[in-house]
C-alpha cells in the first residue's frame, strides 16, 4: 500500500526468460529508461502481484512455469495480461509469416526501441540466447538467433572432451593463455562479432541507425564494443520490461 501511495497506479511487469525472471514495479510517471529492475523466482512475486493494479507478463518458457503462478493468483486473474507477439503494433510490421512463432521477448524489445527511438534500429538482446532484430522505418526486416554468452561457453565444454571452463573467468577481448580464459574470452568475441556482422548487414539497408543492447549479458557486450559501434549504441538493462511498460501505457 505504501508503494501505491508514492507511485499512484502500480503495474507489475514480469519478464520470464530461459535463465531467470526479471521484474519491475512501474507507474506511468516512471520514465521508461529508469525502471528499477530486479531478479526473483516467479513464486516470490505472488505478494507483489496481489497488490499491483495490473500485471503484465512476457514469457518465453513452457507454459508450465506460469501455471503454478497463475493458480496462486486465481483471485486476481482479471488483472493479468500475458502479452503475445503481434503482426503489427506501435506502427512496427513484423516480418514473420507466422508471428506466433516469434519469441515475445524479441517483440517487446522492438516495441521498447520504437518508444525510445525514432530512427532505424538494430536490437541485440544478450540473454540465454542472443537475438538480433532489424527495423527500418516501421518495417521489421528479420533477425538472428544465436547461442548466448553462457550457452556458447557451456556448448564448447559439453562437446569437446578436453575443454573446461573456469566459471570465475572475467571475460575480456584479450587472447587467453589457458583454456578457461580462451573459452570465456572467445564467447565474448563471438557476441562482439555478431554485433559487427549485424551492423555490416544493416548498413546495406540504411546509413542512419541506432544499435540497442540489452539482456543479462548486455552490459558486458556494450562495454566491449569497438569505438565505431559504441558511438551509435545505447545500453538498457532490460528492454523486455520497457516493452511491457509500453504495452501498459497503451492500455490506460
Ligand atoms: N544475477 C544474475 N543471475 C543470472 N544471470 C545473470 C545475472 N546477472 C547477469 N547474468 C547474466 O545474464 C545472462 C542471462 O540473461 P537474461 O537476460 O536474464 O536471460 P533470459 O532473459 O534468457 O533469462 C546469463 O547468461 C548471465 O551471464
Ligand atoms: C530466441 C529465444 C530463445 C530467446 O530467449 P531468451 O534467451 O531471451 O530467454 C526466444 O525469443 C524464443 O524462444 N524464440 C522463439 C523462436 C523465434 O523467436 O523465432
Question: Helices, strands, pairings?
Answer:
Blueprint (H helix, E strand, L loop, with lengths): L1 H6 L3 E6 L4 E6 L11 E2 L6 H6 L2 E6 L4 H9 L7 E3 L5 E2 L2 E2 L10 H13 L3 E7 L2 E8 L2 E9 L1 H11 L19 H25 L5 E6 L3 H6 L3 H4 L2 E3 L3 H13 L1
Parallel strand pairs: 1-4, 4-5, 8-11, 11-12
Antiparallel strand pairs: 1-2, 2-3, 6-7, 8-9, 9-10
Can you describe what's shown?
- Belongs to the type III pantothenate kinase family.
- Its main location: cytoplasm.
- One of its GO terms (cellular component) is cytoplasm.
- By secondary structure, the protein is α/β, with parallel strands linked by helices.
- It is built from nine helices and twelve strands.
- It has a five-stranded mixed beta sheet, covered by helices on one side.
- Helix 4 (104-116) crosses helix 9 and helix 5 (149-159) packs across helix 6 (179-203).
- The radius of gyration is 19 Å and the shape is globular.
- Bound molecules: adenosine-5'-diphosphate and ligand PAZ.
- Adenosine-5'-diphosphate (ADP) binds next to helix 5.
- Adenosine-5'-diphosphate is lined by residues 17-20, 39, 127-128, 148-150, 215-217.
Amino acid at each position: 500500500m505504501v508503494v501505491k501511495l508514492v507511485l499512484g497506479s502500480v503495474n507489475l511487469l514480469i519478464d520470464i526468460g530461459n535463465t531467470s525472471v526479471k521484474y519491475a514495479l512501474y507507474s506511468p510517471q516512471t520514465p521508461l529508461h529508469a525502471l528499477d529492475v530486479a531478479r526473483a523466482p516467479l513464486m516470490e512475486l505472488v505478494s507483489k502481484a496481489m497488490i499491483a493494479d495490473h500485471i503484465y507478463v512476457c514469457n518465453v518458457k513452457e507454459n508450465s512455469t506460469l501455471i503454478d503462478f497463475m493458480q496462486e493468483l486465481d483471485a486476481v486473474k482479471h488483472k493479468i495480461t500475458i502479452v503475445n507477439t503481434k503482426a503489427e503494433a506501435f506502427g512496427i510490421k513484423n516480418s514473420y509469416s507466422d508471428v506466433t512463432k516469434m519469441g515475445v521477448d524479441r517483440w517487446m524489445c522492438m516495441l521498447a526501441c520504437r518508444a525510445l527511438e525514432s530512427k532505424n534500429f538494430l536490437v541485440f538482446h544478450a540473454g540465454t540466447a542472443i537475438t538480433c532484430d532489424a527495423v527500418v522505418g516501421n518495417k521489421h526486416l528479420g533477425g538472428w538467433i544465436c547461442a548466448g554468452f553462457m550457452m556458447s561457453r557451456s556448448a564448447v565444454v559439453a562437446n569437446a572432451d578436453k575443454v573446461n571452463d573456469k566459471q570465475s573467468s572475467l571475460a575480456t577481448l584479450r587472447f587467453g593463455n589457458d583454456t578457461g580464459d580462451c573459452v570465456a574470452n572467445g564467447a565474448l568475441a563471438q557476441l562482439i562479432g555478431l554485433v559487427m556482422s549485424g551492423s555490416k548487414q544493416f548498413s546495406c539497408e540504411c546509413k542512419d541507425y541506432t544499435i540497442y543492447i540489452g539482456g543479462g549479458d548486455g552490459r558486458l557486450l556494450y562495454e566491449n564494443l569497438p569505438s565505431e559501434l559504441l558511438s551509435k549504441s545505447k545500453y538498457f538493462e532490460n528492454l523486455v520490461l520497457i516493452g511491457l511498460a509500453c504495452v501498459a501505457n497503451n492500455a490506460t
